[in-house]
Amino acid sequence: MKVIMKKIIFIFMMSSFLLATFSIVAVDTTTGEVGSAGGSCIAGSIIISDIHPGVGAIHTQSYYLSANQNYASSLMDQGYSPLEIIILLEQNDVQNNPSIRQYGIVDLFSGNNYGMLYEYECNEIEGAIWHGDYDSGQLAECSDPVISRNASFTGSNCSNWKGHVNGINYAIQGNILLNENILLGIEEGFLNINGSLDQKLMSALQGAKVPGADTRCLD
Fold first, then answer.
1. 159 and 99 co-located in one domain
2. Which InterPro entries does this UniProt record tie to the protein (predicted)?
3. Which of 37, 102, 137, 146 satisfies CB 3.0 to 4.6 Å to 201 for a cystine?
4. What are the tens digits of pLDDT across the range 125-148?
5. Rounded-to-integer distance, Cα 72 and Cα 58, Å
């Protein structure tokens, strides 16, 4: 029987040694884990992260406003997709100035739940997964496979260098960076390690460990 864990992973560093202002939100569709990591030279950066256990994560950064973050959080609670949340954040910025904001959102989406079925009944539904003990002859939950969805937004007036990188189960974003290679290094660190989600997030942090990654850290 497949057991889905609902686990929160949160890693954030504020350090002039790390030399990076960036964030990554990610999920693991196999375990149901939701994770968040990042780094900055600016104190209080931990507030950018909003994690919903077993559902998804939102990072709100660049001229952070709690009202915008709370709005995004409420939309995730209502079941909106990451892309839908991004669109609504652009349309409903509290100060009517989305051009200075940056967001990264990822979630877990399970699609249809077909209820309690026998194994042979579930097998007749294309793509569905039966969550029981095989050949047990018992009823068990049948549902579509869990997938991940992601979206990012970087406003045109965020401070350079700014940008974002997205993959199947992650969203990476940063601003006031040295160059694009900082985000690419984070992505490489996340992808090029076989391990649990927390291990991959720690590796992502190491990928951003470049002198001058956050230009403010040089002041």
1. yes
2. DUF1028, Ntn_hydrolases_N
3. 37
4. 999 999 999 888 899 999 999 999
5. 8
